[in-house]
Amino acid sequence: MGATPVQDKWAWVAGPVAVALGLAAHVISGGGAPAMPVLLALVALSALAAQLIARWIHGPILLLLLSGVAQQLLFFGFEALGGSFPGAGFLDHLHGQPQQPVAVPADSQPGSGEVHAADLMLYTHAAAAILTLLVAAGVSRLARRGHDQGQRSAALP
Fold first, then answer.
1. Is 121:29 a contact under the CB 8 Å cutoff?
2. What are the pLDDT tens digits along the chain (157 aa)?
3. CA 96 from chain center: how many Å?
4. Which is nearest to 14 in space by CA: 148, 104, 153, 141?
5. In three state form, how does the secondary structure of 44-102 look?
6. Ramachandran region of residue 86, left (φ > 0), alpha (ψ -120 to 50) or beta?
7. CA-CA distances (angstroms) from residue 90 to 16, 120, 127?
8. Residue 135 neighbours by CB under 8 Å, 6+ apart
9. Are 19 and 119 a contacting pair, CB within 8 Å?
């Protein structure tokens, strides 16, 4: 049995990062945060899932798809298990009520549109999925670089 590559050892980092970014996206767009034991359980499950997925999935498109699926599952988890701590709702004018229009300009046209809280939730979770992909790719690249340098220094007499 061969040694586990270093990049596989650090793959678990993407799980907690996904939960942290998903929670930030959820709370900023007006959702509630679940209690700490629920968050810790979600972090543990996502770290395990990231470690398992890292062995089979390596392409950026598939990783982005899985990051999006993870954010969708986190959204459902936060909605179902949340409510312990109300969301800050910075962009929801501190109302925290779903489906209430938020005065966020969609483009440069005056009065062109209002973004609903559900749309804002979708946008923030999509941004969290993209950031999760970037962080996971960066951690993998740094781990691979450290592994390659370690092999080169071990090969030198």
1. yes
2. 455 555 567 778 888 999 999 999 988 888 888 888 989 999 999 999 988 887 787 777 888 888 889 899 988 888 888 765 555 444 444 444 454 444 555 554 544 455 567 788 888 989 998 998 888 777 777 767 766 666 665 555 5
3. 22
4. 141
5. HHHHHHHHHHCCCCCCHHHHHHHHHHHHHHHHHHHHHHCCCECCCCHHHCCCCCCCCEE
6. beta
7. 24, 11, 17
8. 13, 14, 17
9. no
The 3-state DSSP class for residue 112 equals coil
Rounded CA separation 134/141 (Å)? 10
Distance separating alpha carbons of residues 35 and 55, to the nearest angstrom: 31
Rounded to an integer, what distance in angstroms lies between the CA atom of residue 33 and that of residue 118? 16
